[in-house]
Design brief:
Blueprint: H1 3-23, H2 30-51, H3 58-61, H4 64-79, H5 86-111, H6 116-137, H7 152-168, H8 174-193
């Protein structure tokens, strides 16, 4: 199994768990849970593959990701009531999934010979789009748009760290590990310590 495929599987699993957790407040049936989990799990990778003109899309070439997402949804359907705070679990699982998915996007783009800017954009797209779709369908404010939190910034930094690691370290695991560590550390710092970048503040126009 390639590193890119292993990363895709890992991000699919964890993002699927977050999708199923997002379905629980709506008290959907098990098919609804599977829909939410699958949408979240493959959304970012699908956008990445379409933009890279990768034929076929990863889950169409091998439907294993759909099976992983369905299994995760069934697990959450029967166990979500045991969690003290489903929102807290969702946020931290999303942070882990984001880190792994950015690394997956970077790995796939690099394997296809994409330029450095494209590699960074594919990492960001893979990491953020599935969660964005999950939150929009659940009628929640997307985590990617939460004011005062680092999200897309962490994906950007993680993708950049992967490229730097690829340039200075010959080991094939160096880029994904650097990406995952950077992305998750920044996201965790934002959640725990309030790390953020300055935000735009509207001012009245000058006369």
């Amino acid at each position: 199994m390639s590193i890119a495929l292993a990363l895709d599987y890992g991000s699919v699993l964890i993002f699927a768990l977050t999708g199923a957790l997002a379905a629980s407040p709506a008290q959907l049936d098990i098919v609804g849970f599977i829909f939410f989990a699958s949408l979240t799990a493959v959304g970012g990778g699908t956008l990445r593959d379409l933009l890279l003109d990768r034929d076929p899309v990863f889950w169409m070439a091998d439907p294993t990701p759909l099976g992983i997402a369905a299994a995760a949804a069934v697990l959450v359907f029967f166990t979500a009531h045991l969690l003290e705070s489903r929102l807290k679990w969702l946020i931290w699982l999303d942070a882990a999934a984001l880190a792994i998915a950015v690394a997956a996007g970077v790995a796939v783009a690099r394997s296809m010979g994409a330029s450095m800017p494209v590699v960074v954009v594919m990492g960001i797209a893979t990491g953020t789009f599935g969660g964005l779709m999950r939150d929009v369908v659940a009628n929640e404010v997307p985590l990617v748009l939460k004011q005062g939190e680092l999200y897309v910034t962490t994906a950007f930094a993680g993708a950049g760290a992967a490229l730097i690691a690829a340039a200075v370290l010959p080991h094939p695991l160096a880029p994904p590990l650097a990406c995952i560590a950077t992305t998750f550390a920044l996201r965790a710092g934002s959640l725990l310590f309030g790390w953020s970048l300055p935000v735009y503040k509207s001012r009245p126009p000058r006369n």
